[in-house]
Amino acid sequence: MSTDQPDTVRALIADLVQAGGRLTRLARRASGDATTAATWRTLSVLQSSGPTRLGELAQASGVAQPTMTKIVAGLVERGEVERVADEADHRVSLIALTDAGDAVLNQWRARVAEALVPAFDDLTPGQIDTIRSALELIRPRIARGHQELTAPIRKVID
Amino acid sequence: MSTDQPDTVRALIADLVQAGGRLTRLARRASGDATTAATWRTLSVLQSSGPTRLGELAQASGVAQPTMTKIVAGLVERGEVERVADEADHRVSLIALTDAGDAVLNQWRARVAEALVPAFDDLTPGQIDTIRSALELIRPRIARGHQELTAPIRKVID
DNA sequence: TTGATATATATAGCCAGGCTATGTATAGTT
DNA sequence: AACTATACATAGCCTGGCTATATATATCAA
């Protein structure tokens, strides 16, 4: 299909990215919370993946490692995340979501949803299904994109 | 529908926001460009809406007015945007996309799309339609959300 | 027309997130 | 034991983000 309508897919991707950016901004303002997107991204990864080493967390969240060091430092200070020693590798500690962090993330999701529901409340069940289907198509591809971006050098070497 | 399955819509919104955040991050890294999301958001608004006063630009882009002052200052310095005097109101100048700014934005969209196409290239035409339909449902609601957020005080007063 | 109020933007000053470059400590390898 | 590789931390810089506040222009009322 890319040979048939390459521009169609590309334009769609660009539009998706644009909408994603605006939605992210909207969510922050709507939630009425000063906490930034980076924090929620990090907590989300931890919630869905469990305890993770810092480097992997940076990769999954799509930031450089020193950036993640900063973010985690803030999260640790607020007790939303804790470092668990890795006995097998003393360079490493696993970053784990605390109960408090889990609760904070869930509350944020609830707040965001509550704030945006008025704008989405008129969707029909069919439209909701369409959005959900699209989301399920996009989500794994985003994850794949993050992974591929992190190890592009290997492809060149091979 | 909100009375039937309120949690469904809310959960979907929360998932959408989460995916949007990850996609935004992915796009920045994939584009290989240091320019930040805020800049692209601003240029996008200008491209779709034409010359706009700074305050309206801030509102549409979802940032506070002083933030937009900073962003516009950077764009002006790089020649991607220009200030056009408004003869009817000397407190104001209209912010207008320059040809250079238009080109830069288009190039960015092309770069992002090109970088992400490998992850989306296996979509069937039907799946592409699903995503496009979902996008068309979501986009106007994001815009509405931004507008409503900017003037919430009026509702309280009324 | 002048004084008071309202509006639009600019400025100041702070903090977090983002990066690259580089340091340090532990693992692995020969 | 020495060297290389890996994982993270630190330093230092820039931008984006905010609130609080100043300034300039418009608008309205007397």
Give an overview in words:
2 copies of one chain form a homodimer. The first copy, chain A, is mainly α and 158 residues long. In chain A, 72% of the residues lie in helices and 8% in strands. Chain A is built from 7 helices and 3 strands, in the order ααβααββααα. Chain A has helices spanning 6-31, 37-49, 54-61, 65-77, 99-120, 125-150, 152-157; strands spanning 52-53, 81-85, 93-97. A 3-stranded antiparallel β-sheet of chain A has the order 1-3-2. In chain A, strand 2 and strand 3 form a beta hairpin. In chain A, helix 2 crosses helix 3 (54-61), helix 2 packs across helix 5 (99-120) and helix 3 (54-61) packs across helix 4 (65-77). Chains A and B meet through helix 1, helix 2, helix 5 and helix 6 of A and helix 1, helix 2, helix 5 and helix 6 of B. Chain A binds a DNA duplex (30 and 30 nucleotides) through helix 2 and helix 4.
Low-confidence stretches of chain A: 152-158
The main pleated sheet of chain A reads as:
3 strands, antiparallel
The best one-word shape of chain A is: globular
Provide the helix percentage of chain A: over 70%
Distance between the termini of chain A: 28 Å
Strand element count of chain A: 3
